[in-house]
Amino acid sequence: MPPTVPFVRRIDHGPHPELLEALRRELPELQVVAHADLTDEQRAATTVAIVDGPSGEQLAALPNLALVQSTWAGVEEIIPAVPDGVAIARMVDPQLAATMAEAGLAWTLFLHRDMPRYARQQQARVWKEHPPVKAAERRIGIVGLGALGRAAARTLVDQGFPVTGWSRSPKVVEGAECVHGAGGLAELLGHSDIVVNLLPRTETTDGLLDAAAFATMPTGASLINFGRGHTVDDAALFDALDSGHLDHAVLDVFDVEPLPSEHRFWSHDAVTVLPHISGPTSTDTAAVIAADNVRRFLADGELPTDALVDRARGY
């Protein structure tokens, strides 16, 4: 019998037949089985699982698990569910990076070309032209230079924007200014007209963009949050928008998702709400990458070193 590879997804997330079938197509030599359909013998024999948002109870039922391959780029919900000692590989997918970079460009242009102001004018039936700003005169700050942040930075550089990128440790992105550490973040915030957050959620990123951070940003600057909702202090953001210090916020991620219907973000005229769409998993390409990692692991125990999660860092 060929080895079994469970596909694990929390019951409350609902089934994902498209991804399951894509994984089966990419791993025809293996048995890719939904977790609920595993036999006791298959559970005992499992050493690697592909997960799309698992529960700890599901993974604890696989006593010989050695590697979890996630289909998600973010891991803050995955790490607590994976037993200690089990390696975790996040999804590193060039297509995901390209999709996120596209979203970064789209919403940067939305702000750069003053679309929120023209939307307000439309509501008020005001016909008024405003002088455009050249891309070369609009500095973009990318907070987080992982694979997604680097792709976003390169795309914006290609469009003629001056770009500064920040990371915890030194990084290099051709055409962009790169800064790091606490001093580097303050420098980026202080001279960026549009700040794009692409940080993962960790203990050190929760509340990082707070009142002090917003006060550091230039008057009239804007925020795009594609990272995690917990990075932004919502109350501080409201204060910065209400006072006019910040002009607009494009928010794709929130502390609670779906965003509750009574939340003030929905009705705030300086906020654009998106339903977590900036960087969705690409089913077909994610299946190819997950299958390749699983195949190599089962062949000789090789781990996907470019995607391994450091539990201590949280990503």
**Global shape:** elongated
Q: Termini, distance in Å?
A: 36 Å
Query: Element order, helices and strands?
Result: EHEHEHEEHHEHEEHEHEHEEH
Number of helices: 10
Q: Tell me the β content.
A: 15-25%
Uncertain regions spanning at least 5 consecutive residues: none
Q: Radius of gyration, rounded?
A: 21 Å
Q: For the residues shown, what is the average pLDDT?
A: 97
The biggest sheet amounts to: 7 strands, parallel
Number of strands: 12
How helix-rich are the residues, as a percent range? 25-40%
Please list the strands of the largest sheet in the order they lie side by side.
8-7-6-9-10-11-12
The structure class reads alpha/beta
Quickly describe the structure.
By secondary structure, the chain is of the alpha/beta class. Helices cover about 35% and strands about 15% of the residues. It is elongated.
Structure in words:
The protein is of the alpha/beta class and 315 residues long. Helix content is 33%, strand content 16%. It has ten helices and twelve strands. The chain has helices spanning 17-26, 40-45, 56-60, 94-112, 115-123, 147-158, 181-191, 211-216, 234-242, 283-300; strands at 4-8, 31-34, 48-51, 67-70, 87-89, 140-143, 163-167, 177-180, 194-197, 221-225, 246-251, 271-273. The strands form two sheets. The protein has a seven-stranded parallel beta sheet, with helices on both faces. It has a five-stranded parallel beta sheet with strand order 2-1-3-4-5. α1 packs across α10 (283-300) and α4 (94-112) packs across α6 (147-158). It is elongated and about 70 Å long. The two termini are 36 Å apart. The relative contact order is 0.14. The model has no long low-confidence stretch (mean pLDDT 97).
